[in-house]
């Protein structure tokens, strides 16, 4: 049998000893490390050339919003109370009153985020955008939608890190 392996560089390997060293245990191993390394490089090149690979795509519209990005993206929101009541899942006026006692606007958004995820565990950025539109905050809704539908729009390195490392569970408001 004759086997042929081709890499993106156009180099062809037709050596049956090479194939035996990869496929069959106990095959020739004279160039095993070099051949394995070469194969790994070729496979990585093919994967990268496929265009389907993003190192860190960032938040997407149906993703669960992280606390940091939720507070950061909603920072421009002046009147947050109507927005909170428009969020799907059941934020109540009592919740709003409790959240209102938090010190800064960032802490209020963080508390709102935690409470919202408690009452709506399937929350997504799409819900945030729809609630903003319902409250006639169309410009902010459009800005956030751009950020979560186009991973390169208006994001910094900190956004990348937060999007990839946030996996905290919501805690009750105290």
From TrEMBL:
Residues 79-148 form the Death domain. Residues 163-174 have a biased composition (Polar residues). Residues 143-174 are annotated as: Disordered. This is Death domain-containing protein. InterPro entries: DEATH-like_dom_sf, Death_dom. The lineage of its organism: Eukaryota, Metazoa, Porifera, Demospongiae, Heteroscleromorpha. One of its GO terms (biological process) is signal transduction. SUPFAM superfamilies: DEATH domain (SSF47986).
């Amino acid at each position: 049998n004759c086997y042929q392996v081709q890499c993106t560089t156009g180099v062809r390997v037709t050596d049956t000893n090479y194939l035996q060293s990869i496929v069959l245990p106990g095959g020739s191993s004279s160039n095993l490390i070099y051949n394995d390394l070469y194969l790994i490089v070729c496979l990585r090149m093919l994967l990268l050339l496929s265009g389907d690979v993003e190192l860190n795509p960032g938040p997407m519209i149906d993703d669960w919003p992280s606390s940091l990005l939720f507070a950061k993206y909603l920072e421009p929101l002046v009147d947050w109370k109507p927005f909170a009541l428009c969020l799907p899942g059941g934020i109540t006026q009592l919740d709003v009153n409790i959240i209102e006692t938090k010190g800064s606007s960032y802490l209020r958004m963080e508390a709102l985020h935690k409470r919202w995820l408690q009452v709506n565990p399937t929350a997504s950025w799409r819900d945030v955008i729809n609630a903003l539109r319902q409250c006639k905050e169309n410009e902010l809704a459009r800005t956030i939608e751009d950020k979560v539908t186009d991973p390169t729009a208006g994001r910094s390195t900190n956004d990348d890190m937060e999007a990839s490392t946030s996996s905290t569970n919501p805690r009750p408001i105290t």
